[in-house]
Design a protein that fits this description.
With 322 residues, this protein is α/β, with parallel strands linked by helices. 40% of the residues lie in helices and 20% in strands. It folds into 3 domains: 81 residues, Orthogonal Bundle (Arc Repressor Mutant, subunit A), CATH 1.10.10.10; 119 residues, D-Maltodextrin-Binding Protein, domain 2 (3-Layer(aba) Sandwich), CATH 3.40.190; 100 residues, D-Maltodextrin-Binding Protein, domain 2, CATH 3.40.190.10. The strands form 3 sheets. It has a 5-stranded mixed sheet, sandwiched between helices. A 5-stranded mixed sheet has the order 9-8-10-7-11. The protein starts with a helix and ends in a 10-residue tail after the last helix.
Length: 322
Amino acid sequence: MELELRHLRVLCAIADSGGVGRAASALGYTQPAMSTQLRRIEGLLGEGVFVRSNAGVELTAYGAQVVGQAREILALADQLTRLRHAGTRAATRRLRLGAINTPVVPALLDALRDACPDRVVSVNSVYATADLLDLLESGELDVGLGCDYPGMPMRHSSRLRHRAVRTVPVFVAAPSGHPLAHRIELPLEGLSEDTWFVSSDDGVGWPGAFYDACRAAGFTPAATHEFHMLDQLQSMIAKGLGVAAVQPTVRPIDGVVIRPLAGDPLWQRHLLIWRPDLVESSVVEAVHHHAVRTHWQLLAQAPHFQKWVARAYAPPRPVDGK
């Protein structure tokens, strides 16, 4: 860990407010997170910056020198930022994040409060990745969480950049009373007579990828509903009204089972997309790191996905005792 500008801002905020709790509130931290940050910073510096008192905290002699120099460094950094972004919207310290229907957002926002305490993050929920791209292209968003599908890579202008967060197979949600629910994985062709809940066009390949997989399995769904509100969707699946393709991070409610499709005929790639002229590379790295970490944590908490991993990556069984 190296000393960064955000650490200097933490020290100045504590010195200005006279208390860890008040500084945490000003920077959007929780008090425990702020206390942890302070311990790490003092560990880096090798000496205590503050002493605790009944009234809050006070600077040590060493701390007064540190905070004084920190203010000078931050003032210079702010001048550089103003020079770089003079006359542009990037001069603000707001991070405008757009996201499609992904469960990573709550934990990601919580992680960014610690990783980027000098940023105020605003979130725009968008259904279609195509709409997300339009908002990024027009400069209404700085970064976004979208997706595409194997064989149908995302297309955008040279104004944008993108990077993979994770590629995962698409699973299926079915009623727990479904005739195939007892199986470890469900053959797509075995669901040919089911009614499907299919989410609407996302502008980058869905539901085309789903219908292509069905055709490859030898059928076209007999009946479909266009639907993408997950809480209501699972309630209807639990009542036996149909099945749906879902992300493997989905947590099933009572009456619903989540299973992989045999042969993994459908995949989805989750992406971070950004405007490099509107957001610094350090912020992009932080968002990407925590998006990857959060997505993995959610997958680790999904038993149906962990069972799929155990089968998909199990070593081959020996043949004839060898």
